[in-house]
Structure formats: C-alpha cells, structure tokens
Amino acid sequence: MSASADDQYEQQNDAVTGGVPAGDSKDNDYASRTGQDQIPVQKDDAPVEDPIDPDTADSDQTLAQDDKDAIDQSNVIGGRTRGAKPSGGYAEPGDEEGLPADDGTSAVSY
User: Fold this and answer.
1) What global pTM score does this model have?
2) What gap in Å lies between CA 47 and CA 70, rounded to an integer?
3) Is the pLDDT of residue 1 over 70?
C-alpha cells in the first residue's frame, strides 16, 4: 500500500532535522546602532539580567515575605461596616416590586 498524497507532501516539504524547526533563531537587524536617538533595542544574544535567585525563589520564606509585602496592614479595615450605624435593617422586596404594571399591553414598543 502506498502513502497518501498528503504523507508524501509532508515527507518532502515538512522535513525537520533533529526535531528543531528550520529558520534563523536570532535576528539582530533591530539592534540599535550608534548615533540613533530612538529607544535602544538589545541584540538577541545579549545577556539578560535575572533578578530572581533560583535557590530561594520558591521557598516558603520568600512566599511569606511576598504576602507580607503585598498586604499593607495599615490599609485593612478593622470593622465590617466602616463605622456605619444600623438604619432599621433590611426589608425583603415584594413579589411585584420592580415589575411593570400589567395593563394587558405588549412590552414591545414600536
């Protein structure tokens, strides 16, 4: 049994060597040149500063410190009502409250 036309096309045109896509992985055409007054653009192969220490990045101590830094305790409200006094409580709405009057006309306007 022969391979289908689709399989033959893929074998001829989609061949990738070593499991790596073909093409140029680095493109430094956008890197800034001296004398340009625009926003500087780094080259693809320029080293990147990584401020995260992999030894402590996922530790419980670091996560606890992150939580402490994220929650400003001086901004947390102590009471639930922010000091508001009760004003008679809550009342359940009636069954017809908020509904249009039933006068037998259609709700669709022309």
Assistant:
1) 0.24
2) 30
3) no
Residue 80, both tokens: 């639930």
pLDDT tens for each residue of 39-58: 777 788 888 888 888 787 87
Q: Within 13 A of 101's CA, how many CA atoms are on the CB side?
A: 1
CA distance 24 to 53: 31
DSSP secondary structure letters along 38-83? S-----TTS-------TTTTT-HHHHHHHHHHHS-GGGS-SSSSTT
Among candidate residues 46, 15, 14, the one with its CA nearest the CA of residue 30:
46
3-state secondary structure of 10: helix
- At residue 4, the 3 state secondary structure works out as coil
CA distance 60 to 80: 31
Give the Cα separation of 76 and 70 in Å (integer).
Answer: 12
